[in-house]
């Protein structure tokens, strides 16, 4: 079972997401809470995936994200946002968020996103893609990033394209006829060459430079 924690200041939204995910046979939601309780609840319930509101009146979503990722064996954290052009999306990306979802994501896509995140993949909701890409490029500079991308080998570009589809290392290995450990080594090399801190930042570049079509879930 994939254990999910939902963190949002709106009780009704928390209940709605919980109801949607609990209906899935492979997902459970042992806890939902507001921002100030997030770290305590994560330590107590040890979720695999956290869906975290990026803007909350009593807690800074970026600070909560950083605190969750600082835990031993941290969960995967995806940010929930109401606005596709939310100015906090780029800081959340730099802080290590593994995905971005708008709050009106349809139920089937929400469950699929949780599965992708739990398998080690990344999620970029199409509605927020432009904001994520634009914020990252403004913060890091367009030219240097293009030259870093050009330094990748053909095989690394193949791996990056699959990574940007949300594929896990195991799925990348299967698709490219290599072992999971080899796929992981390629991903590590890609992150080092691009100077990106995590998979979602690398996925942003892949989408921007046309290596892959934006897709919220991986191909079967």
From TrEMBL:
UniProt cross-references to PROSITE patterns, sorted A to Z: HTH_LUXR_2, RESPONSE_REGULATORY
Record has Phosphoprotein as a keyword: yes
InterPro entries linked to this entry: CheY-like_superfamily, NreC/VraR/RcsB-like_REC, Sig_transdc_resp-reg_C-effctor, Sig_transdc_resp-reg_receiver, Tscrpt_reg_LuxR_C, WalR-like
Residue span, Response regulatory domain: 3-118
Assigned keywords, A-Z: DNA-binding, Phosphoprotein, Transcription, Transcription regulation
Modified residues (4-aspartylphosphate): 53
Organism, scientific name: Streptomyces luteireticuli
Organism lineage string: Bacteria, Bacillati, Actinomycetota, Actinomycetes, Kitasatosporales
Domain HTH luxR-type per the UniProt entry, residue ranges: 145-210
Superkingdom classification of source: Bacteria
Protein name (Swiss-Prot/TrEMBL): Response regulator transcription factor
Stretches assigned to coiled coil: none
